[in-house]
């Protein structure tokens, strides 16, 4: 394989891995801010429980997003140096603003959000939650402005040395595709999070946690999001598509599978096997004139096909055609789940309808798949250009020997699968446990027994032996792996809860299984 | 024209500041990772981790600013240096992946705890070593061909870059150890003091060796350091290094000095930075590309400069807030906060 292809694979691999983490944390940060706000407002314990439940998952996902993101900020230079040199004057400052306004904001307040509730008091803690949530969205805004500029470049001139020289920053930042891409992508991130939260809630409902207030609240909130946001997202996607048709027609041709021009109304192909060699869509199944109706709002509107585009300016149709269909199909499935939930809510079976829950569990990762499919559609659809119409991918690449790129790609693949595989495993294990609520037996353990650090057997059984969040804090693993009950408090392995513990003793009284040990360690 | 030269100098200064802040902030938390291997007790490791857990993410953001700022203000230098330093940059990024996730993962598992501890140690050490290699490779110069890197993909490797790699590992370990002196108590603090001694001696030795080597790498460096009039500007730096070194070692023997060793080790790093600045100015890629040649157009630099001047003080303020919130000794009983 040549160095160009390897560099493209490496970029696609690392950016895809990176993208799934922020796609989840952008929504989750906002969800956490909402939960914290609801808790402060209503003083209902359930919101604090959910906050604690999800913040553990947030912390791990955020860490993976950070480390995979640092890679991206250097990869422009390592693998796309010619692009960096030429486009740097335009996109570099936007990325610098992303760092200055968003990354520092997130990172600076993350520590306080995770660890600082009892140290700074509820107001500053709430501000920290909002800063992190706002930071994630702001970060997306800047980077999508950069990305949009690569699709619809504006506000520059090309200098004698080949560099893109900025002329008008407002035109650069608010380039033609930016508002649509931003709205569509941010909404996608919120929807992705809603389906993950809804899926986790549904899983625990299926397992019989119907009296668990935390499970019910998270499921209900997620289903409201799905019902309200999924139709909005479909509308935004349509707008984004129309914008693309205006600025990058060959991308839409590839999405639609329109190799030929259709002077009297183009069909909407539902299925087909694109063949770039012969420039035809084989085994095509389509609805006549529907594409013209959707894209031009006129059944008989003529539409150009890829036959009007020189072969060396066409994107690879197969990838774009299929990734687009995957994204759209998931979008409509999401809409279906939203409507299903509305119906169940109306029938008062939101927490009992097992088919709704099964569907929601199956749809848990759907947002992530849709986000990646959409990303692939737009990025591959821009090919063969990095900066649409102006700079080709093959001219953008660094002068690095193929073996060096192959070596780094191999390392990225091994390390990412190992590290992020482990991370996803820990996430799933955390999500596999329901948010623990006021359990009757917990009340019984108040007082001297817990003060002595002894844990009832029933709670030990509850704990996964390898989940230190539950087990380690109460059991000291003696020599030879024999657990012994310990009378001295052991540092709580549970993530950020020791902190929440102190300012909010009642939660731990209700719920020693989630927050064991600390009370005697800190409070008393 | 005058304005754009001044702006390029200002941007270079800003980048040096960002990299310096990165080096001292992530320096001590990478140092914690390097020292992890020398502190086997579980409870001490938990304390060490907790001493940096709330701030490491912010610390690493300065690295993103360093890379992003170089890209934005001096895109030509970014485009030449990144391919030139391909292997050590990729190694650094992968190492940072391991040590970054270890912060979260090691609290999530018993079975794999020791593996994530190892990931933390090796990742931190490897990241520090890679950064040192990058420094050495930059100082020894990279081949430039037109507007691109003109060398091979092993050019970065040399005895000198290997030496600077180890030097940075030692220096970060020193920062980590003096940080622990400040943030811990009892036996762990005593241990940190001893480690600070060991790595302090090593760091100073490496500073001397690297400093003796450097003037012979390029004629420009030689001129700056060893002939008039450069020597008058340069000479105070090694003299100050000597004074600070003595003060730091003395401070390490005084029991009630808990903050001072850390602050003095920061000053030591600042002096090394001043030395590097004396060697390199006005080059961004030594003897090939100056900051003026690599500078982004005025429009780009001024657009960012306005933002940076407003935002960096705000960032420093809330970063200081985060450090203030988590000030004081780490309570070993507190767990992962």
UniProtKB/TrEMBL annotation, chain A:
It is a multi-pass membrane protein. Its main location: membrane. GO terms for molecular function: electron transfer activity; heme binding; metal ion binding; oxidoreductase activity, acting on diphenols and related substances as donors, oxygen as acceptor. Keywords: Cell membrane, Electron transport, Heme, Iron, Membrane, Metal-binding, Transmembrane, Transmembrane helix, Transport. One of its GO terms (cellular component) is cytochrome complex. Residues 472-524 are annotated as: Disordered. One of its GO terms (biological process) is aerobic electron transport chain. The keyword Transport applies. The keyword Protein transport does not apply. Residues 512-524 have a biased composition (Basic and acidic residues). It is found in: Cell inner membrane; Cell membrane. The chain crosses the membrane at residues 20-41, 53-74, 94-116, 123-144, 187-206, 218-236, 319-343, 355-376, 400-427. InterPro entries: Cyt-d_ubiquinol_oxidase_su_1 (IPR002585). Belongs to the cytochrome ubiquinol oxidase subunit 1 family. This is Cytochrome ubiquinol oxidase subunit I. It comes from Aquisalinus luteolus. The lineage of its organism: Bacteria, Pseudomonadati, Pseudomonadota, Alphaproteobacteria, Parvularculales.
UniProtKB/TrEMBL annotation, chain B:
The chain crosses the membrane at residues 6-39, 86-107, 119-140, 160-182, 194-217, 229-249, 261-282, 302-326. The keyword GTP-binding does not apply. It holds the Pfam family Cyt_bd_oxida_II. InterPro entries: Cyt-d_oxidase_su2. The keyword Glycosyltransferase does not apply. Keywords: Cell membrane, Membrane, Transmembrane, Transmembrane helix. It is a multi-pass membrane protein. One of its GO terms (biological process) is aerobic electron transport chain. GO terms for molecular function: electron transfer activity; oxidoreductase activity, acting on diphenols and related substances as donors, oxygen as acceptor. It comes from the Bacteria. GO terms for cellular component: cytochrome complex; plasma membrane. It is found in: Cell membrane. Belongs to the cytochrome ubiquinol oxidase subunit 2 family. This is Cytochrome d ubiquinol oxidase subunit II. It comes from Aquisalinus luteolus. The gene is cydB.
